[in-house]
Amino acid sequence: MIFLIAAFVLYYLFPPGKRWVVLLGFSIFFYCSCGIRTLPLFIAMTAVSYFGSLLLYRNKSRGLFFILILLLLLPMLLTKTLVRFTELSVFAPVGVSFFTLQIIAYLSDIRNKKTAPERNFLKYLLFIGFFPQLLQGPIPRYGLMEDLYKGHSFDEDKVIKGFMLIAWGFFLKLMIADRAGIFVDLVYSDIDRYGGTYILIAGILYSIQLYTDFSSCVCIAKGSGEMFGITLSDNFRRPYFSDSIKDFWRRWHISLSMFLRDYVYIPLGGSRAGKLRKYLNIMITFLVSGIWHGGGLNYIFWGVLHGTYEILQELLGGLWKKAGVITGFDGHKRLVRLLNILITGFFVMTAWIIFRAESLSKGLKMVLSMFTRVNPWILFNDSLILDGFEMADWNILAVSVMILIMVSILQEKGVAIRDRILGYPLLLRGTLYMAVILICVVFGEYGEGFETGSYIYAGF
Hints:
Elements: H1 2-13, H2 19-35, H3 39-58, H4 62-80, H5 96-111, H6 121-129, H7 131-134, H8 144-149, H9 156-188, H10 197-227, H11 245-251, H12 254-265, H13 275-293, H14 297-327, H15 333-356, H16 360-372, H17 391-412, H18 417-422, H19 426-442
Helix pairs in contact: 1-2, 2-6, 3-4, 3-5, 3-6, 4-5, 9-10, 9-17, 9-19, 10-15, 10-16, 12-13, 13-14, 14-15, 15-16
């Protein structure tokens, strides 16, 4: 917070035309504070892509393009395989999974003449290393660059709205993600003891944990950007309101989904070469997504599973609609949508269970246990009160999730909540801000031995 305040003050003290220099300086400082030993490799990758972009703009060479892509992919691939299991992991560039895709998109757009390369190396370095988005995205496109360099004037409303988004991010992290993670960790640490309905509850809570953890970081990143007048792209759009797997991927990790669509699925041919080729392209795209998340077989299986979901959904979609007509359910649109949301959520959650597991075999064992070990009575006694996760934790988590659901429903209806809060009297707004901060401080750290965990997606 001290770092962000210092950057904020200096940014608006500098002349508008030089304000981007402040962002560059703080971004480099931020990177060094996260992993200074990896700075040389980060600079090297940035330099290779910078000079490569200038060459690509002059010579639209497919060979040069693929050589650049292979060189730039190498650090990320090593990070996800050999480096992860050796002492070399300390040299894995911070945020490599995110800025590598950012660079690939940039080079691809230049080769296809969608944009011209940035001539100023320092400005390009800021585009790649802008500190709010560096660690976990969202993965920006080149169009963000102009917003970075404009030298925005101080806008009180934007600053306050940015602060509100940061506060909401801390609420998601401290009140929901970290607390849900306690129960998830307890179940995953002893899957032989906790089977059946325990796995179901842990799967639901992990789905919530992963969403709120990642969304929290993105909210803090977007809020930080807004304080400088810079708009970062949305990365989530209430994904658990999805009524199909395809809809889920329009709402979940949007910047990655858009990258995979534009730079993997469409170049492979998309849906232009017949049904079989389309399904193959879908499977390859989801396989790439699985590999991007990690080198373990559970990640690869998770990607293949989502590809299978989407293909089966397309193949069986017609039958599902016919079943609705025959049963008369098609006339109850809200009920059908709710049913589709629940079914989609269940399949997504099942995939998350495998995603979270230490290995593919353990993940499959947990899913099998969820269906074969019958113990629903734990929902009606004190069996869910575990050593390290007490009734107070359940109460805090339940209230916090209900707040998230209510906010999400309002957002789904198009309500601009932050704009509405800005319309409140100053005293009421100030009281609301202080209440959120105090709730996060007091209840977000409630419980003996409770500690804030690191961000999950920082590991990817």
